[in-house]
Amino acid sequence: MADTEASGIQPPANLHFDDLNKLRVMTSDACEETVALKDECKDFVEKFEGYQELIDTFTGLMSELGKEVEAEKMKAIGSQNLLKTVRKQRDTKQQQLKEMMVEKNLQLMRLRAEVEQLQRHEDEQREFVAHFANSK
Length: 136
Known about the structure:
mainly alpha, 2 helices, rod-shaped
């Protein structure tokens, strides 16, 4: 800058010379701040991209987990339906067996009555035969 001042030439207000006598549009302090801001922005973008990768990974894992949960849910629903079907079949079979027991009990009562009637008839026949044999 001393050379320009000595020669009487002044650079325009927005132009500056740096330490290496290179012409700059902004001051060296502003240039350093711009470079620092650029580096900070680069770090921010890298961190944000890393964060985005984490989000994508997490989203993928949650999506897979959701599919597994849905599959297990469908298995559970299927098991519940199967259990309901088995219960209904068991109840139906139990009702059929109860009806069969009632029917068999009625049949047993009829057969017992028939046996009693036949035994009385047999006793009457024996009595008649004994009476007929004694009268001869």
